[in-house]
Every structure is written in structure tokens, then in C-alpha cells.
Write a structure and sequence with these properties.
By secondary structure, the protein is mainly α. Helices cover about 40% and strands about 5% of the residues. The strands form two sheets. Strands 1-4 form a two-stranded parallel ribbon. It has a two-stranded antiparallel ribbon with strand order 2-3. The longest helix is centred in the middle third of the chain and has 28 residues. The radius of gyration is 19 Å and the shape is globular.
Length: about 210
Amino acid sequence: MTHEERHGEPDGASAEDRGMLVTSDPAMLRALAHPLRVEILAVLDELGEATATEIAEQVGESPSNCSFHLRQLAKAGYIVRGEQRGTAKPWRPAHRGRNLTPDEHDPASIRSSAAVGALYVQREASRVMEYLTTTPPEDPEWVRAMVVNTSDFWATADEMRELAETIGHLVDRFAGRAADPAKRPPGSRRGHLFATLNPDPRTPPTPEA
């Protein structure tokens, strides 16, 4: 499993060189396995930096509760302090993205990564459902840009890994637009890509011929 937030960075360097956090450490993964922490981190990813009070307004929680979870995220290395603004002390993401692929030989890492992945699925599914059920009708050109797609297929583990890598690179052509508004073409809007890929646990592997 890979839980990765890609913000359109070029792919010529390693993940670490692009500012990506790459970890399979169970303790670090468990530190993120809380719905409010996932939400707080998503807010910081979108805003760039924010104070506990500003985050509280976004997530509907008290500043003190957000402060507690921010400290836990900082302790685990997910966020750091931003530049102080007067008396305000904002936080910002410590990395431009996160790859939380578990260590396939460590059951604790797999369980922790799965717990974080489940929270991201829950959050993204809620966001898509809200869009579909409460958003007023869009202009026709934007209606055609929205899609819900499901596919069933047979593939080997290597083929599924290759497909996962391909999905992960789909947004690479939009590199730099998140950080630099000047690179956004007229008429562009912020988009969301939510993809999951998993083997069906009800079907055993096809036997060797």
C-alpha cells in the first residue's frame, strides 16, 4: 500500500530529494493514525501554513484540541514551525509529500500503514460524496471533468505494482502549479485525484499451468 500526496513535483530526482517523506516506521505511522490529525495535515497541505486557531476554524474543533494534535504531529516529524507572524506561531508541513508504504516484512508496519490508509479513504470518500450530493450543478465543461470509475481485472502482483506507479505519476504533468500560481493556466481550478488499488481477498492466485 502507498499513501502518497503528490503536489506535482518533477520526477527527475529521488523522493527524498523532491522533499518527500518516505517512511515505513510503525511508530511514525501510528502517530498519524487519527482522523483529526489526517484532517489537520490536509489543511496544512492546502494552506501551506496555519496557526492552531486558523486550523480550528477549518476543521470545526477547538484551538486547544488542534494544538494538542499539532504537537503530536510535530513530535513525529510531520510538521514544523513556520515563521512567526507577530504573536502568531504557525505550523507548516515538514515535507512536500508523504509516501507511507509499509515494510512488507513487518506486520506492525503493514497494520499501521493500513490504519492510516483507511482514514484517508474515509476522508476522501466523504469529500467525494459531499461533492456529488450537495454541490450545485456545475457548468457543462466541469460536469464532464467529474468521473467515478470502477474496474475489475486480473493481474499479477508485479502488474498491480506497475499500475500503482502509473497512477501515482498521472499528475506529474501539472508540476509546480500548486506552489506557483503563475504556472496555472487561465480557467484552471484545484482538482482532486482519489485512487485505490487492491487485490480481491476473496479470490486466490491463479495456479501455475
